[in-house]
Amino acid sequence: MTFLAPGFLLAAVLAAGVVTGLHFLVTRPPVRAWLPTARFIPEAAVTVRTLARRPEDLRLLALRVLALLLAGAAFARPVRVGPRVALVRIILADRSRAVARPDEVADSLRALRAPADLVIPFDRAPARRAPDSLGGAGQDPLRGALAPALVAALRSASAVGRTADSLELVVISPLLAEEWDAAVPALRALWPGRARLVRVTARRDTVPARAGIQLGAGVPEPLATLVAAAGLGGATAPLTRLVGDLPGAADTAWAAAGGVVLQWATVGAPAAFEARAVPDTVGAVAWGAEALVQGFPRPWRARPVAAGSRVVARWVDGEPLALEQPLGRGCVRALALPLPARGDLVLRPALGRLLGHLAGPCGDGAPGAALPDEALRQLAGAGPLAAGHGFPPEEAPPSPLVPWLLGLGLAALAAEQWLRHGSRPRPAAEPA
Amino acid sequence: MALPSRFAPALEAARGLAWPARRRAPLPIPGAHVARVHRPAAELVEFRAYRQGDEPGSIDWKLLARTDRVYVRLAPERAFLPTAIVLDGSRSMAFPVDTQAKWHLAAALAVGLAAIALADGDPVGLLLVAGGRGRWIAPRSRRSVLEEMMAALDAPPDGSAPLAPSLAPVLRGLARVAIVTDFLGDAEPLRALLAPFTAAGGTVQAVHVVAREELEPPRAAHLYADPEQDSLRRPFSPAARAVYQERFADWRQELARAWRGAGAGFTEAVTGAEPLRQALRRVTAPPGATAGAR
Hints:
The complex is a heterodimer.
Chain A: E1 2-3, H1 6-22, E2 25-28, E3 31-34, E4 48-51, H2 58-76, E5 78-79, E6 85-94, H3 102-112, E7 118-122, H4 146-160, E8 164-173, H5 183-189, E9 195-199, E10 213-215, H6 221-229, E11 240-243, H7 249-256, E12 260-264, E13 273-287, E14 290-302, E15 310-315, E16 320-327, E17 330-335, H8 349-358, H9 373-380, E18 386-387, H10 401-422
Parallel strand pairs in A: 6-7, 6-8, 8-9, 10-11, 11-12, 12-17
Antiparallel strand pairs in A: 1-5, 2-4, 8-18, 13-14, 13-15, 15-16, 16-17
Chain B: H1 8-14, E1 30-40, E2 46-49, H2 61-67, E3 71-79, E4 83-89, H3 101-119, E5 124-130, E6 133-140, H4 144-152, H5 164-167, E7 176-181, H6 187-199, E8 203-210, H7 212-215, E9 222-226, E10 229-236, H8 238-261, E11 265-270, H9 276-284
Parallel strand pairs in B: 4-5, 4-7, 7-8, 8-11
Antiparallel strand pairs in B: 1-3, 2-3, 5-6, 9-10
Helix pairs in contact in B: 1-3, 1-9, 3-9
């Protein structure tokens, strides 16, 4: 057990010492002596404060000291601390689409893990600290991200650092470049020790890439023209099914089978969008590193992005333009870009490239290349393991003993009051 | 009988001192003191007409030859002063408890005064009131009375008997009374008893014995009790010290004024304040002397 605020307990001990010292100051008749001229001494109470060798009122003293110590212990907030462990591993287990064989991750985990270790599965976001939740590893169409996993690892270290002498960060992952972003180095620098990297086999997409667009229900003529102009029509095994209305059952089946359903709304708001109270206009759209500069009316706006969805394209002011929602092995994309009834916009190559981007595979495509050696060295770090006390403690844990300690302290005070006022004063001892 | 060695300093301090009478002696007992009565004598003081019965030897024949008148020569008689030393031997005199300095000073003063009186040829006696009773040694001129007095003073002070009842029966025949006491007993009855004695021509010398610890009690808190009156207990604190000293001083001043006003000599003797010889000098000094009473 330890105390979150030990200063209060120290103050209580000091106060108890003062109270004990005061109990050595007793009021009793003074030393008696003869004085023939005593008649000239003014009359007064026959008691004086003197210093005793033994404290008086031991029961009162005990109750007062007990009340002070209980109050001090309550304010010091005692918390239970488990037995200290020499080493705790915080294991980041990759379960994103980059993992080729999930059982390889599980095998590595079983080989490393000790009973006191923590496992944090992660893909795009770290899962809660489920012990063996690697289900679905590798089937996640979304790419993994190291940054959120490192944040979770730092939080876990703050929680367990109080009971561990050393902490080791272990990353079981294919360690691909797509999992690295600009936040990773800064987050890694917050871990004050070396990390162990366990590399597993990265998934490679061996299935030939599908492309092309199949026109579905409700596709207006301008869109069909756009598809033909972009060279995306006529594929034998198209990846994407373009629809103008809300996706139907057939569309859902298409997406579940691994395809992409692209809803290009032309009349009503597309899925995941709602009508604006006041429509406005925007001067451009952006996707990836490209942009299309064109004045567009903007009658719709995106609803709050649901979990698992991602923004595929944006208006130039940052508002979502196209949202992708995973569905089965594929996904459904909704595009809120009204096409003008007239003009040659559909013939512009930029719009064709936008269509090609929106008709591409779900997610960001197949997993990319491995992390370069410099990034791996930065991630692994060097030097000793991180010390348990090297992490800022998390928020103070609850101290369930505080109400009990305060209650016992109040009971001791009540007993002291009763004993002080209920007992009769002892007669002053006659001096020898 | 060998003299107790503890009184040797008192006897040494009294050597050479005289204790002249404060008044003319009332009784024509031949002694060293000037008596009130004038008798025919060789030393001329005054003349008186011859009366039948006068000694022929006292007739001034030269005056007769010159004046044809018969006169006798008169000179004051020299008288002895039977003296009693009244010594308070009550428990209050045994203070401080560890040294009993008051008792030792009082006993030394009593022995010293007795020795001085004996040296002057005066009969001296002792009235020791101790242990609840009074022990009377009648005045005598022999040296042995001093030994007897010193032997009587061997007993420690005790009891709380008043002095006046023991003194009253023995006043008759005394010319001088010296009272050595702390006046914490029956000061008023004693003064009332001696008032007629003083009015009749007797000499009273009061010696007030005070312990230094009574004048300057320790500053520490104590519960003080009167040794002769155990029920009288007073707590003594530093705050009460000033009040005590003021009250005690006022009482001592009033005491001295009352005894002097009654015609007695009054001297205060503090333990350890001065040599014994100086204290004896002050007690035996004539009224108005530079070494006067405190």
